[in-house]
Amino acid sequence: MFSSVKPSNRVLLIWSDLGSAPDQLQAAVGDIQAVVGAAPKVCVENVERLAMSGHKASSFDQVFSGCLGLATINHDLDLLAQISKFVAPGGQVTVVQAVSGDQSPDSLKSTVVLSGLTSSSSPTLLSSFPGLEATVAKLGPVQLYIHSASKPQHEVGASRLLSFAKKPAAVAAAPVVPAPKTNGASMWTLEDMDDDTVELVDDQTLLAEEDLAKPDPASLRVCGTTGKKKACKDCSCGLREELSAGKEPTTKSVTSSCGSCFLGDAFRCGSCPYLGMPAFKPGEKITLSDRQLNPDLREVAAN
User: Fold this and answer.
1) Which of 105, 107, 156, 217 is the 20 to 30 Å CA partner of 203?
2) Which helix (H) or strand (E) holds 28?
3) 114: enclosing H helix or E strand
4) CA distance 151 to 270
5) Residues lower than pLDDT 50 in the chain
6) What is the DSSP pairing of strand 87-100 with strand 60-65?
7) What per-residue confidence (pLDDT) applies to 93?
8) Are strands 87-100 and 142-150 parallel, antiparallel or unpaired?
9) Residue 90 contacts by C-beta under 8 Å, 6 or more apart in sequence?
10) Measured between alpha carbons, how far is 26 from 33 in angstroms, rounded to an integer?
11) For residue range 72-121, what is the model confidence (pLDDT) as tens digits?
12) DSSP 3-state helix, strand, coil percentages of the chain (rounded to 5)?
C-alpha cells in the first residue's frame, strides 16, 4: 500500500480509529521514514484535527487517508478538497473508503474528480485489509475500496489566459503587383488652389435686418414658476390676470405671500421667484457685487 513512496518524499498519514492495534501506526511511520530518508518528512494527523493542523498548501508529495487502523473515514467532497490543498502539484493521494451495499464505488471516483484531483482508474476492491473485520464490526456489512488519484501540475486556483482565436489557414502568396508611378507635381494639394477662384460667403449676408432688431421686453415676459409664456394653473406672478385682460405682459414686482423669502432658500417655497438668490433684508434691492460678477472671483479694483 505504501510502495509508491519514494526517497525524499514528504508523506502525510491521516487516521481516524486505530482500534485494538495502535502499534500499527508507529510501525508504518518507521517503515516510511526508512524510505524517505533521515529527515522528519512523515507527518501523522487525525482526521478530526486536520483543519487545525496548520500545514501549508502543497506541503506533501504523498497523502494516505484511512489506510491505517479502521477504515471509518468518510471521504466526502469537503475532506478531499482539504486534502487536495495539502498535496503538491504532481503529488498522489491514496484513500481507503468503506462502501455499503446500497452505494456504488464509482461515486468515490466522482467525488475525487470534483475535489480537483485526477483519477485514471476506478476504485479497487480490497480482499484483505488489517482492519477489515474491526471495520465491519463497527460500520456493519461494508466493503473496502482503495483508490489513488494525483494532483495536476498546477496549484489550486491557478488561472491561465486561453486564446480561442483561430489561426488563419495558409494561403498561397499572390503575386505582388507594383504600384503605378505617379508624378508628384500632378497630385492634388491645397497649395495648387488659386485664391481668386475660390468663392467665399459674405458674412454680412448671414443675418437679416430682423435678426439684428432687439426683442420687445414685453414679449420676454414668462411665468415665474414654469418659465413659459403661458400662465400656470396656480399662477401668483400676475401673468394670468394680464393675459385674461388682453394686456401685454409686463414685468411686475412680486410680493412675498409667506413673508420669509428674504431669509434664504431654506425658508422659500418651491415656486418662490427668489429661489437661488442670496438672503436680503425686507424691502432691500438685490444687487451683486463686482467680485461676484467676476468669473475668476478676484477683487476688482475700485475705479
Assistant:
1) 217
2) helix 23-36
3) helix 106-114
4) 71
5) 298-303
6) parallel
7) 93
8) antiparallel
9) 61, 150, 151, 152, 153
10) 10
11) 999 999 999 999 999 999 999 999 999 988 888 889 999 999 988 998 78
12) 25, 15, 60
Nearest-CA neighbor of 155 among 92, 88, 61?
88
**Contact between 98 and 47 (Cβ < 8 Å):** no
231 closest CA partner among 252, 258, 215, 255: 252
Grid coordinates given for 106: 464509482
Q: Tell me the three state secondary structure of residue 230.
A: coil
Question: Cα(8)–Cα(10) distance, rounded to whole angstroms?
Answer: 7
DSSP states along 48-87? GGSTTS-PPTT-EEEEEES-SSB------HHHHHHHHHHE
CA angle 32, 48, 116 (to 5 degrees): 70
Q: Which residues contact 284 (CB under 8 A, 6 or more apart)?
A: 262
Cell numbers that stand for 161 in this block = 489566459
**Bridge partners (DSSP) listed for residue 14:** 45, 65
